[in-house]
Write a structure and sequence with these properties.
This protein has 123 residues and is mostly helical. Helices cover 79% and strands 0% of the residues.
Length: 123
């Protein structure tokens, strides 16, 4: 009869655990956590960028409204409303009212959100 040493058994169990962890898809909650982090970073960068911009008070309020619409549309899974809000945000960003470094940060945040959305699994 063949006996299995405890160290070999441990190695086999560890290897099986590693294989199983690689084959199981990431839970949706971990993916949505990343989306929440991306939106929080965008909100922070928008706040800082708007404060340093040359937008009028009315334009600042509209820009913040566009961000709120983007956030609500993403939470409600309304892709067309999110697209409209993102386009409005980009148009304001390209107006020349933002400092180049703020404009670039916000554009990178929007790109990260879009890439995360496009890479999520579809059922």
């Amino acid at each position: 009869m063949m006996t299995i040493r405890p160290s070999a058994l441990f190695l086999v169990v560890a290897l099986l655990g590693a294989i199983l962890s690689l084959s199981i898809p990431q839970p949706v909650s971990a993916q949505s956590h990343s989306a929440k982090d991306d939106m929080a970073k965008l909100a922070k960068d928008i706040h800082a960028g708007v404060e340093r911009s040359t937008l009028t008070p009315k334009e600042k309020e509209q820009f913040r409204d566009d961000f709120r619409e983007l956030k609500q549309a993403r939470e409600a899974h309304e892709p067309f409303a999110a697209l409209r809000a993102a386009r409005s945000i980009r148009a304001t960003l390209n107006s020349g009212a933002f400092k180049p470094e703020d404009q670039e940060k916000i554009k990178q945040d929007l790109q990260a959100i879009r890439e995360a959305h496009e890479s999520r699994p579809r059922f």
